[in-house]
Amino acid sequence: MGWVILIVVLVLVVIVIGIVVGMYNGLIKLRNAVKNAWAQIDVQLKRRYDLIPNLVETVKGYKNFERETLEAVTKARNVALQASSSGAGVAERGKAEGELSGALARLMVVVERYPELKANQNFLALQEELTSTENKIGFSRQYYNDSVLKYNNQTQMFPSNIIAGMFNFKSGEFFEVTAEAERQAPKVNFA
Amino acid sequence: MIWEQIRSNQVKSIALVVLMAVLLLAIGYFVGLIFFDNWIAGLIIAAIVWGIMNLIAFSQGDSIVLAMAGARKISRDDHPRLFNVVEEMKIASGLEKMPDVYIIDDPALNAFATGRDENHTAVAITSGLLQKLNRDELQGVIAHEIGHIRNRDVRLMVLLSILLGAIVILSWYATRFLFFSGAGGGRRGSSKGGGGGQIIILVVGLILMILAPIAAQIIYFAVSRKREYLADASSAQYTRYPEGLASALEKLATSNTQVQKANKATAPMYIINPLEKRSLSAESLTSTHPPIAERIRILRAMAGGSYADYERAYKAAKGGGGIMPASALVAQDTVGLRAASEDTGPVESVPQKIERARETSDLMYKLDNYRIIDCDCNTRLRIPPNYRSPTVRCPHCGRIHKTPNS
To answer: Which of B80, B91, B374 is closest, CB to CB, to A128?
Structure first.
């Protein structure tokens, strides 16, 4: 009789361990997804740095194109690039990127006044790339937030919250865009 | 969210696949009894038909489907906008690998997604649709297709359509055989000279062979309809702009050209049923897709872009129960929608439409190996692949151009 109880207890222990391992791995997977989503945002930001010199080069050729607008874009790009490579704080980077977005948007408004430019195939191709890169930046941030939501749900809901507490899974922070010009980026800081 | 949604769907999906498999085996059972006096032989035949079809579908099913639809793979340079939109939705959905992009040379308006698994996926769109949609609408349609991939609809539908196909094939041949060889056939002559039991088996088997394909189709279509709603919800979730898909569907609804290379087997894959006359008609048991008008109404009623928002809009539009799996709605609240893109005003300008039409036709010419020269007089020369002379004269202004090498 004794060994029957022993086997039952053993089976229960194995099942519990299995569930714990499953939840732990699930949390790890979600947390990695969040990290990966964060890295994807950088990929798109870098793509934008790479596109801007081409754009400036193409637009510069047009007579009387507003110098200040172009210079503002170049400057904002260099500031943002500087911030990204020097490992500046996330908030500072977010601000620089926000300013770059603003400068680019102003450039696109100015372009409307140059019909010849809008007929230039080369420029149109660049414009498509830039528009899409802006979208991709937005969508990668959106996906980052979706991943954080998924991950946070898992760390807060019963019963996986017990595992999350035991192994110190901290909640992820959402990326929030507050105002057009100043975008506060969150700190991604996982234990 | 998607992950939980897949899990909950999987249980129901497995149940459906099992149900269809049982139907198939039941037919096999009766085929065996009627033709060979041996039910095991029938089961083996059913399993072999099923196995072969599975083997084909999962080794090269996606390429067969694409070939059947007359789809051609394009590269980024062929159509940057389409490629970018697919990439944007790949990012928004968190899909790991970029789907291949295909184009179908057909004026009808439609699109579909296919693939064996998450690493071999493809989205295909007709040239007609590509030409008609603005950026936001294209995004909505592509997001719907990527939703199918992300929700693993493609695999489920392949599994179900194989079972359906096997059931149809087996029943079709068995009933034909029965009718043409005279009930029972020569095979049974050697048996113990069947009595009443044989006749009952024959009748039950015949009824099953007639009804099973119909039942299987009804299951298949019901799954297909539900998956369309889910993919619409995914599209809204990825784009945060349900109006894009709604307005695209509106354009799809007003077109009444049918896709030339679509058939009954491939119909459920398309974003709208490629065979049905566009009558915005009511939902019926044999439609592969929910009525377009209803899908549009739900999308337009969404207050936000989340699955929870879709569920609310769905309930409001249809009354009664929802459509989303409960697990997709866990801890989900409304999420804000984004504004329309800048180039998509309420009314499309004519130059925009012309530009899109030109873009698409250039793409189709390029795929046919035409060479393209832009003359300084704003004429675009398209040189057919069999043109061999080293120079070509612009028919409009008379300038002489060098023929580029193809």
So the answer is: B80
